[in-house]
Amino acid sequence: MSPLLKIRAERDRMSAIERRIGDFLLDNAHLLRDYSSQQLASALGISQSSVVKFSQKLGFKGYPDLKFSIGEALARADAGPGVPHPAPPAQPPHMALGDALWRGKARAREETSVVNPVERIDAVVQAIAGADRVFLCGMGQDGLHARSFGLRLALHGIATVAHSDPLSMAASVHTAHPRDVLVAFSEHGRQSDLCHLSRRFRERRGYIVSITRHSANPLRAHADTPLLVCAHDEEGLVESLIYQAALEHLLDMTLLLLCRRSGHLSVDERDRIGQTPHAADP
């Protein structure tokens, strides 16, 4: 895994000093060969030990190993097919904007995949596949994602209970039992109502899945399995768009794995398609 990708993926969980180091490495990756750990520390106004600890936290023996790995990643990225190509013609502004947005979404999806290991996704798929009911809750924009995912689960034969109002969901939670699953959507994971709802659901011995940004947050701490979303951009609107794209990709992947794991869901889907009225045949 590219160390630069790992830095971007882990950024939300870093301390303030770690973020300063990470941002410097991301912004000056091509210049790192000229920086020793002491020079990097001096440039950032921090201790050399902070640089060493940062490198070790990423899984390297020290800063030299991290710097070498970054250099290798840059060399691989810069390596082309060996045949020079003419520079592409200048794009209209709206096309350049679209390409930048597409690259941001692709990067967010890649980073999101990195921070959600296979075992974590499989745990969520197994819990939903074995659930009697799946409760889904989120507020605002998160509520739209919760209802959309709930609808797709229902279309595949899974009993769902979806609410965008935590009070309504709290009333439903009174009927929950150990074979039920709660999927709580919250970008920043700080809504106290959802945290309270998660505690109530745990009292019913249900299984809790949280879907939040890749950051330390209260809702994530309440979950049996947290799903994490990475999205970073200097412009707030763009960051919101790439967050939604990465989240949708994560949900689509979960649904696809769920359908392939549970053969009876595919049978239900085929039966439903067979019952769907078709246009008049010729």
From TrEMBL:
GO BP field: carbohydrate derivative metabolic process
PROSITE patterns for the chain: HTH_RPIR, SIS
SUPFAM superfamilies per UniProt: Homeodomain-like, SIS domain
Keyword Transcription regulation listed: yes
Listed InterPro entries: Homeodomain-like_sf, HTH_RpiR, RpiR-like, RpiR-like_SIS, SIS_dom, SIS_dom_sf, WH-like_DNA-bd_sf
Segments forming domain SIS: 124-264
GO MF, one example: DNA-binding transcription factor activity
Domain of life according to the entry: Bacteria
Record keywords, A-Z: DNA-binding, Transcription, Transcription regulation
Domain annotation HTH rpiR-type: ranges: 1-77
Protein name: MurR/RpiR family transcriptional regulator
Organism per entry: Marilutibacter penaei
Lineage: Bacteria, Pseudomonadati, Pseudomonadota, Gammaproteobacteria, Lysobacterales
